Automatic annotation (TrEMBL):
<dbReference type="InterPro" id="IPR023319">
    <property type="entry name" value="Tex-like_HTH_dom_sf"/>
</dbReference>
<dbReference type="Pfam" id="PF09371">
    <property type="entry name" value="Tex_N"/>
</dbReference>
<dbReference type="Pfam" id="PF00575">
    <property type="entry name" value="S1"/>
</dbReference>
<dbReference type="Pfam" id="PF22706">
    <property type="entry name" value="Tex_central_region"/>
</dbReference>
<protein>
    <submittedName>
        <fullName>RNA-binding transcriptional accessory protein</fullName>
    </submittedName>
</protein>
<dbReference type="InterPro" id="IPR032639">
    <property type="entry name" value="Tex_YqgF"/>
</dbReference>
<dbReference type="Pfam" id="PF12836">
    <property type="entry name" value="HHH_3"/>
</dbReference>
<dbReference type="InterPro" id="IPR055179">
    <property type="entry name" value="Tex-like_central_region"/>
</dbReference>
<dbReference type="InterPro" id="IPR012337">
    <property type="entry name" value="RNaseH-like_sf"/>
</dbReference>
<dbReference type="GO" id="GO:0003729">
    <property type="term" value="F:mRNA binding"/>
</dbReference>
<dbReference type="InterPro" id="IPR050437">
    <property type="entry name" value="Ribos_protein_bS1-like"/>
</dbReference>
<dbReference type="GO" id="GO:0003735">
    <property type="term" value="F:structural constituent of ribosome"/>
</dbReference>
<dbReference type="GO" id="GO:0006139">
    <property type="term" value="P:nucleobase-containing compound metabolic process"/>
</dbReference>
<dbReference type="GO" id="GO:0005737">
    <property type="term" value="C:cytoplasm"/>
</dbReference>
<dbReference type="InterPro" id="IPR037027">
    <property type="entry name" value="YqgF/RNaseH-like_dom_sf"/>
</dbReference>
<keyword id="KW-0694">RNA-binding</keyword>
<dbReference type="InterPro" id="IPR044146">
    <property type="entry name" value="S1_Tex"/>
</dbReference>
C-alpha cells in the first residue's frame, strides 16, 4: 500500500496546480510560496522581490495566497480522510489512489461519504440482519425472482419477518450504495448544475410584507446563469420567510434523465427479467429519497459559495476604490455632521488634521437658527483659514449642503469650497476605543464631524481607523462569511496603505498597523517611541524601536517615508537594501543625490541593465530609476468635486428626463449606485452604462467617481430611482411622448407558451434597425390584463418579461403558471423605441 504524499511532493503538486491556474511558470509560484512561508507579506513580495517571482503583481499574489490556503486545507482534509479510513481497516490501494487523485474538497467528500461515521441507518440494520448478499444477488443477477429469493433470507430473530421485509432491507442497502457512489454523484451534480434551475415563489400572504422581493415572487433561472446579486437576494428573501426556493434538476418540459443515468451506471435496465422492475423502483427511491435531497443541498451550497465569492470580490474592489480616492490634501477643513433636532456638529481641523475648533449649530427644524448658524460658521472659517467644507451625506445632508451654499454666497471673501462626502462608518469610529484615545476631550457626537473632515483630507488615513465592514460598500455583507470577508478586506487595506506609503512621523497607530511587517503591537511601539524621542530622522533610526527586529525592518522600511529627513532616499519607495544601487547611479552620473532626484532627462538617458548585479535585477533597477525621477509618487487621482443640483433635495423633486451630477457610491455586478443628493441612491443598471456591451460595471465607473446621469424613472413608494449614463436615453416623459406621437422605431408581436418566455426577433419587429433594445418594450393589454414588460437580452433574440401578468413569465421564465397547464400560445404586442427608453 502506498503512503501519503510527502510534504515535498505535496508542495510540488500544489505549486504546479497554482501555476496552471494563474498561467505562470511553476518557478514563479514556488518562489512566492517560499517567500510567504518565510513571513514575507504580499506588498513586500510584489514591490521588492520581483526578480524572485518573475514580477507577479499584488493581485496575482493575492490569488496565489488564497489558492494556496485552499489547497493546503484540502491536503489536511485528505490526510484526515486517509487516516480515518485506515483506522477502519478499509483502505486499499485502489481507494487510496482515488483519494490521492481527488482535485477538490467536494470530490474528497464524495469519496469519503461511504466511510464517514454516521448514525445507525436502515441500511446498516439490514446488513447486520445478513441482507447484503440478497441485495448484491438481485443487482448482479436480475433473472432471479425477488420474492422467491428473498424468502430464504427471512429470519424473525434478526428482525426480518418475511420475504417482503427482506426485500425492503435489501432496497435500503442498494439505495445507500447508489447514493454513496462518488463517481455517480459527481456526474449527477454536474448534470444538475448545467441543466437545472432555481425556482422562487412568494409565500402565501407575504406579498405586501415582502414587496422588496417582488422581482422574485414567481421567478426561475438556470443555476449556471444566476448572477450573484440575484442569488443573494433570493436567499435573503428565503431567510426573511418571504420566498420559497426550490432547486429543480431539469426544465420541467424535459424528461427526467437522472434515474436512467443511475440505472445505467449499475447495469440496470428493463429487459423483462423478474428483478428489473424491482431494481428500477429502487433506483427511483434512491433518486427521490436520497440523491436529489443530497444534490439540492450541494447545489444550494455551490450557489451560495459562488455568490459569496463574487460579493466579497465586489466589496473588496469597492473598498479599494474608496481607500484610493483622491485626497484633498493638507488644507484646513471644516467637517459638518448633519442633523435636525440634535443640530449640525461642526469640527475644524488644520492642514495636518489636528482639531482646532468644534461647535454645534441648529439651522434646521425645529430651531430654525439659520442666520446665527451661518455667522458661527463664517467666524470659524475666517479664524482658522478654512478652505474646504466636508458635509456628511446622511440625514439632513441636503439641507446642510444648502446652508453651506448660503455661507459661500454671503461670504465670497472666504473662498470656500463645499463637498458632500460619505459618512459611512463615522458613527462606528466615534464610539470606538481608538477615537476615545485619539480625541478624549471631545463628545462622541463631535468625533463624527472630525472624521468627516479628515476623510476629505486623506480618505485612506482616516478610513483605516474603521472596521472595513462598517464602511458599507458591499452587497448583502451581513449575510457573508465573517472570516472570508474580513480576510479579503484586510488584504485590500494592506495593499492600499502600502501602495501609497506612510509618513512614519505623522501616521496614526491604525495606519501603521496596516504597513507591511507591522502589527498592532509594533505600531503602538513606533508611536510611543516617536512621542518620547521626537520625529524619526532616518529609516535606520527605526531599528531603535523596541521589538522592531531585522525581519520587521526588512518588510516595512520601504513603505515608511521620512520627508525632510537626513537622507532624501528615506522619503522615497527605494528600499534601504537597494541604496547601494543608487550610489552606483550617482557615481555613473557624477552627481549628488539632490541634483539627481527629479532630473528626468538624466535618469531617462541611463540604461538600467548597466546597474544590474547578482542581487538586484532589471525590474528592481528600473523601479529605482522611476522612483528617483518622481520620488514618493502617489497612485491616487487628483482631487475634484461634484455639485448637486439646486432645488433637488428629496425623492419627490426628481423628474424623468432630469440630467444631474452625482457621485458613485457603490458598484455591484448589476450596476452602480449614484448619490444625486436626495438621500436615496439611484441605480444605473449595467445595461444603461454604455451604448456598447458592458460585462463588468467596474470597467465603466468606480466608487467616488463624479458622473452625469439622466433620470429614467422614479418610484417614490418603493424609493427606487432608475438612472442612465447614456444621456441620449429618453426619460419617462419623453417615452410617453414618443409613444403618444406614434414614433416608435418598430412594432411586432412576441409569442410564447405558458411555462416559456415570450421572444421577439429584432429583425421581425420592423423595417428600422434597433441595435440596443434592452428596457424598451411596451406590451399591449392581453386578455384584459395589462402586462408591463421589459427586454432582458442585449442580443438578437429578445426575451420579454411580463411582470404581474398571469399569462406570461419572468426573465429566464419557464416557471409554471398554477392551474394553467394547457399548452396554448400567448401573443403580446410590443413596441420598441429606437432610443432604448422603456415605455
Amino acid at each position: 500500500m502506498t503512503s501519503d504524499l510527502s510534504p515535498a511532493t505535496q508542495q510540488i503538486s500544489t505549486t504546479h496546480r497554482i501555476a496552471d491556474e494563474l498561467g505562470v511558470r511553476e518557478r514563479q509560484v514556488a518562489a512566492a510560496v517560499d517567500l510567504l512561508d518565510g513571513g514575507a507579506t504580499v506588498p513586500f513580495i510584489a514591490r521588492y522581490r520581483k526578480e524572485a517571482t518573475g514580477a507577479l503583481d499584488d493581485a496575482q499574489l493575492r490569488t496565489l495566497e488564497e489558492r494556496l490556503r485552499y489547497l493546503r486545507e484540502m491536503e489536511e482534509r485528505r490526510t484526515a480522510i486517509l487516516e480515518s479510513i485506515r483506522s477502519q481497516g478499509k483502505l486499499d490501494e485502489a481507494l487510496e489512489a482515488q483519494i490521492m487523485a481527488a482535485d477538490s474538497k467536494a470530490r474528497l467528500e464524495d469519496i469519503y461519504l461511504p466511510f464517514k461515521p454516521k448514525r445507525r441507518t436502515k441500511a446498516m440494520i439490514a446488513r447486520e440482519a445478513g441482507l447484503e448478499p440478497l441485495a448484491e444477488l438481485l443487482l448482479g443477477d436480475p433473472t432471479q425472482e425477488p420474492l422467491s429469493v428473498a424468502a430464504g433470507y427471512a429470519d424473525p430473530e434478526k428482525g426480518v419477518a418475511d420475504a417482503a421485509a427482506a426485500l425492503e432491507g435489501a432496497r435500503h442497502i442498494l439505495i445507500e450504495k447508489f447514493a454513496e457512489d462518488a463517481d455517480l454523484i459527481g456526474a449527477l451534480r454536474e448534470q444538475m448544475w448545467s441543466r437545472g434551475r432555481l425556482v422562487s415563489k412568494v409565500r402565501d400572504g407575504k406579498q405586501d410584507e415582502g414587496a422588496k422581493f417582488s422581482d422574485y415572487f414567481d421567478f426561475a433561472e438556470p443555476f449556471a446563469k444566476l448572477p450573484s446579486h440575484r442569488i443573494l437576494a433570493m436567499f435573503r428573501g428565503e431567510k426573511e420567510e418571504v420566498l420559497d426556493l426550490t432547486p429543480e434538476p431539469d426544465d420541467l418540459e424535459v424528461p427526467n434523465s437522472y434515474e436512467p443515468r443511475i440505472a445505467g451506471h449499475f447495469g440496470i435496465a428493463d429487459k423483462g427479467r423478474p428483478a428489473d422492475r424491482w431494481l428500477l423502483d429502487t433506483v427511483r427511491s434512491a433518486w427521490r429519497v436520497r440523491i436529489l435531497i443530497h444534490l439540492d443541498a450541494n447545489i444550494r451550497s455551490r450557489l451560495w459559495q459562488a455568490a459569496e465569492e463574487e460579493a466579497v470580490r465586489v466589496f473588496a474592489a469597492n473598498l479599494r476604490d474608496l481607500l484610493l480616492a483622491a485626497p484633498a490634501g493638507t488644507r484646513p477643513t471644516m467637517g459638518l455632521d448633519p442633523g435636525f433636532r440634535t443640530g449640525v456638529k461642526v469640527a475644524v481641523v488644520d492642514a495636518t488634521g489636528k482639531v482646532v475648533a468644534t461647535d454645534t449649530i441648529y439651522p434646521h427644524v425645529p430651531a430654525h437658527r439659520w442666520d446665527e448658524s451661518i455667522a458661527t460658521l463664517a467666524k470659524l472659517a475666517a479664524v482658522h483659514k478654512v478652505e474646504l467644507i466636508a458635509i456628511g451625506n446622511g440625514t439632513a445632508s441636503r439641507e446642510t449642503d444648502k446652508l453651506a451654499g448660503d455661507l459661500i454666497s454671503r461670504h465670497p471673501e472666504l473662498k470656500l469650497t463645499k463637498i458632500v462626502v460619505s459618512e459611512a462608518g463615522a458613527s462606528v469610529y466615534s464610539a470606538s476605543a481608538y477615537a476615545s484615545q485619539e480625541l478624549p476631550e471631545l463628545n462622541v457626537s463631535l468625533r463624527g464631524a472630525v472624521s468627516i473632515a479628515r476623510r476629505l483630507q486623506d480618505p485612506l488615513a482616516e478610513l483605516v481607523k474603521i472596521d472595513p465592514k462598517s464602511i458599507g460598500v458591499g452587497q448583502y455583507q451581513h449575510d457573508l462569511s465573517e472570516v472570508k470577508l474580513s480576510r479579503s478586506l484586510d488584504a485590500v487595506v494592506e495593499d492600499c496603505v502600502n501602495a501609497v506609503g506612510v509618513d512614519v512621523n505623522t501616521a496614526s497607530a491604525p495606519l501603521l498597523t496596516r504597513v507591511s511587517g507591522i502589527g498592532e503591537g509594533l505600531a503602538a511601539s513606533i508611536v510611543m517611541h516617536r512621542d518620547s524621542n521626537g520625529p524619526f530622522r532616518s529609516r535606520k533610526a527605526l531599528k531603535d524601536v523596541p521589538r522592531l527586529g531585522p525581519k520587521a525592518f526588512e518588510q516595512c522600511a520601504g513603505f515608511l517615508r521620512i520627508p525632510g529627513g537626513d537622507d532624501p532616499l528615506d522619503a522615497s519607495s527605494v528600499h534601504p537594501e537597494a541604496y547601494p544601487v543608487v550610489r552606483r547611479i550617482l557615481g555613473a552620473t557624477k552627481s549628488d543625490l539632490p541634483s539627481l532626484i527629479g532630473n528626468g532627462p538624466v535618469l531617462r538617458a541611463l540604461k538600467p541593465v548597466e546597474f544590474v548585479d547578482d542581487t538586484f535585477g532589471l525590474p528592481t533597477v528600473t523601479d529605482i530609476l522611476k522612483e528617483l525621477e518622481k520620488p514618493g509618487r502617489d497612485p491616487r487621482p487628483a482631487f475634484k468635486t461634484a455639485s448637486f443640483a439646486e432645488g433637488v433635495e428629496k425623492l419627490a423633486d426628481l423628474q424623468p428626463g432630469m440630467v444631474l451630477e452625482g457621485v458613485v457610491t457603490n458598484v455591484a455586478a448589476f450596476g452602480a449606485f449614484v448619490d444625486v443628493g436626495v438621500h436615496q441612491d439611484g441605480l444605473v443598471h449595467v445595461s444603461a452604462m454604455s451604448k456598447t456591451f458592458v460585462k463588468d460595471p467596474r470597467d465603466v465607473v468606480k466608487p467616488g467617481d463624479i458622473v452625469r446621469v439622466k433620470v429614467l424613472d422614479v418610484d417614490v413608494p418603493r424609493k427606487r430611482i432608475s438612472l442612465t449614463l447614456r444621456l441620449d436615453d429618453e426619460g419617462g416623459a419623453d417615452r410617453a411622448k414618443a409613444g403618444g406621437n406614434g414614433a416608435p422605431a418598430a412594432r411586432g408581436v412576441a409569442t410564447g407558451r405558458p411555462g416559456r418566455a415570450a421572444n421577439a426577433q429584432l429583425s421581425r419587429l420592423g423595417s428600422r434597425r434597433v441595435r440596443w433594445p434592452r428596457r424598451c418594450v411596451a406590451p399591449a393589454s392581453t386578455r384584459g390584463s395589462a402586462a408591463r414588460a421589459e427586454l432582458a437580452s442585449r442580443h438578437e433574440i429578445v426575451s420579454v418579461i411580463a411582470k404581474r401578468a398571469p399569462h406570461l413569465l419572468y426573465a429566464g421564465g419557464r416557471a409554471r403558471r398554477p392551474g394553467h397547464a394547457e399548452d396554448r400560445e400567448v401573443r403580446v404586442s410590443v413596441t420598441v423605441f429606437a432610443s432604448g427608453g422603456r415605455a
